[in-house]
Amino acid sequence: MSFLFRDQSWPQIQEHIDKHSLLILPVGTTEEHGPHLPVDTDARIAEAYGLGLAEALAPDLPLLLMDAIRYGYSMKIMKQWPGTIVVRSRVFMDLIYDVCFSALEMGFDKLAILDCHGHHSGPLNTVSRELCDATDKAVAIISPAGLSRDEFNAVRQSPQGGAIHAGEWETSLLLHLSPEVVDMSKATDEDTMRYHSDFVAGDGFQGRQRVTWSTWYLQESQSGCYGAPTCATAETGKVVMEAAVANGARFLREYWEKR
Ligand SMILES: [Zn+2]
């Protein structure tokens, strides 16, 4: 039996609604990721993460995995390099709202969004609150970065500021998932994040930022990277994906059972 939403007929969808199946919606985007990674890096991670979670949970938890959203919102700074497709933030929020609202309105009551792109965290957070206001159903948002942070920090090789956009974390994941689309001969650490302070963390893996301030404009990246990709390995990528799946599955089981 397939756990892909797109493979179901409407009676099969109804059966899933009747047994309170968990819906999983992976959300990535399409944007440049330096000279060494493909532009679909976030979307590729989103799809792989959705599949990993579905395979981990499906044996004993009813669920359906939706097709990934592959386009989203990026700041203008990312358009310096070709390959970045930008959906305006409000259009993106409306798209996610309508996709999720349709699912909740037809009867699903447990829906988890997989947030696989940094610029989406604010918009997705707001949309989940709006959906709750409209339907009295609480959508969950989980991110593979957040759910692999401790395990990644235990094995990371890069210095502070090395693990953001196209840096050690993402490059490791791609080396694990799709080494054939990674060109490590083009990877450079020249754009490891330079600005650090008591208020702004070097990268998102070193603790919660105490203020909101994008320092990407200070970075003046030449390569399109914001991190240190040469530290990446497939082994680190495997650690990251396994941790994100194990922790994510544990949370989603808790989210599904609580009603
Ligand atoms: Zn990315």
Summarize the amount of helix as a percent range: 25-40%
Q: Tally the beta strands.
A: 4
CATH superfamily: Creatininase
Overall domain count: 1
**Global shape:** globular
CATH topology: Rossmann fold
Question: What characterizes the major β-sheet?
Answer: 4 strands, parallel
Q: From the alpha-carbon coordinates, what is the Rg to the nearest angstrom?
A: 18 Å
Q: Could you explain how this protein is built, in words?
A:
- The protein has 259 residues and is of the alpha/beta class.
- It has a single domain (5-257), classed as Creatininase (Rossmann fold).
- Helices cover 40% and strands 7% of the residues.
- It contains eight helices and four strands; from the N terminus they run H-E-H-E-H-E-H-E-H-H-H-H.
- It has helices at 10-18, 41-57, 89-105, 121-135, 149-155, 168-177, 216-219, 234-257, and strands at 22-27, 63-65, 110-115, 140-142.
- Strands 2-1-3-4 form a four-stranded parallel β-sheet, with helices on both faces.
- Helix 4 (121-135) links the parallel strand 3 and strand 4 (140-142).
- Helix 2 packs across helix 6, helix 2 (41-57) packs across helix 8 and helix 6 crosses helix 8.
- The longest helix is centred in the last third of the chain and has 24 residues, at 234-257.
- The mean pLDDT is 95.
- The protein binds zinc ion (ZN).
- The site of zinc ion has 6 residues, from helix 2.
